[in-house]
Specification:
Strands 1, 2, 3, 4, 5, 6, 7, 8, 9, 10, 11, 12 and 13 form a 13-stranded mixed sheet that branches. Helices cover 29% and strands 30% of the residues. It is α+β, with helices and mostly antiparallel strands. The protein is built from 7 helices and 18 strands. Helix 1 crosses helix 3 and helix 1 crosses helix 4.
Length: 325
């Protein structure tokens, strides 16, 4: 069976051009001359043709532009809000066909949750029983306290949990659930991070019991203080020592200790809107240091000043590329 080769990434400048044309067409204000320019632009190069094919696919999925990006009232190209919308639209085009579905899922996860954070935001909560929850960037949770349980449903993102004793007449278990399983706190402090197909648990104090969502026959495991593990809905991963910097994000820092640059980029990208790409030529460069997640541009500048890395931005900063200096 033949497998389709993945296409090379499109030039961000061409994606921005496609986003501009898509937005202008949605506003229905093109003159005959401008429409002729658009027709020529579409066929003037293979890359532009690919970019416009993605734009058409995005339109077909929604029947137009996503509402949050429809900027028909902002008809001045210099308007900052319009420039921001163009950047977001270009990023969607970069990810089509998966990008639109992911965008819709993120919106629904965020706005229907009891508590949520935006990209780059952190939030601290004190629950009715005195337990404390810290939400990391781009996180959404539901809270359900009843007579039987104290339940936190982590829809997406990452949380730090500090449980408090339950003063109810009948003590209730403190539970955290994800799509992969359910964790019961045994008087503890721990972090939970929900990935697409796995959950990552790190126990800082006490212990946590874990059971799998789709494998109830599997005996639950106990993860003790100083241990971390990850699991799918079907199987547990092997326990490992907890990274001593696992909760550094609560202090606004991303700690790197001989971390691969490619892995660092993945982590830093969680805290900024847009796309950060690492050139494969420097993906294995090892870096160390403390980097502020509240100012990701400063972190990128620190990289460029300390290591042989060149940082270039496109699409008003929404698309950043790290390449050899």
């Amino acid at each position: 069976m033949l497998t389709r080769r993945s296409e090379p990434p499109l030039d961000p400048k061409i994606l921005e051009e496609a986003a501009e044309w898509l937005m202008r067409l949605s506003e229905n204000d093109l003159s005959e001359t401008e429409r002729a320019e658009w027709e020529y632009w579409k066929v003037s190069s293979p890359e532009r043709n690919r970019a416009w094919t993605r734009a058409q696919l995005l339109q077909s999925k929604f029947g137009g532009l996503p509402p949050a990006l429809a900027m028909s009232a902002l008809d001045r190209p210099s308007n900052p809000e319009r420039r921001a919308a163009l950047g977001k639209l270009a990023l969607l085009l970069a990810a089509v066909p998966a990008g639109w579905g992911s965008w819709k899922l993120a919106q629904s996860q965020q706005w229907s949750a009891d508590y949520h954070t935006a990209v780059g935001q952190r939030r601290e909560l004190t629950l009715a029983d005195g337990s404390q929850i810290t939400l990391n960037t781009d996180t959404a949770i539901d809270v359900l306290f009843d007579t039987r349980q104290r339940l936190i449903n982590l829809r997406e993102g990452e949380i730090l949990v500090q449980t408090a004793p339950d003063n109810a007449a009948q003590p209730r278990p403190f539970l955290v659930s994800t799509r992969q399983g359910r964790m019961q706190a045994l008087g503890t402090r721990f972090t939970v991070r929900e990935w697409q197909l796995r959950t990552q648990l790190a126990v800082l104090e006490g212990a946590v019991q874990v059971e799998l969502a789709d494998n109830p026959q599997r005996t639950p495991i106990i993860v003790n203080a100083g241990q971390r593990t990850d699991f799918s809905s079907q199987a547990f991963g092997l326990p490992n020592p907890t990274d001593r910097n696992v909760g550094a994000w609560t202090q606004g820092m991303l700690m790197a200790d001989k971390m691969r640059l490619a892995d660092f980029v993945v982590e830093l990208a969680r805290y900024r809107r847009g796309f950060v790409r690492c050139d494969p030529a420097i993906a294995d460069l090892r870096i160390s240091g403390a980097f502020p997640i509240s100012d990701t541009q400063r972190s990128l500048n620190m990289l460029a000043q300390t290591y042989p890395v060149h940082v270039s931005g496109h699409l008003s900063g929404y698309w950043v590329t790290l390449s050899p200096a």
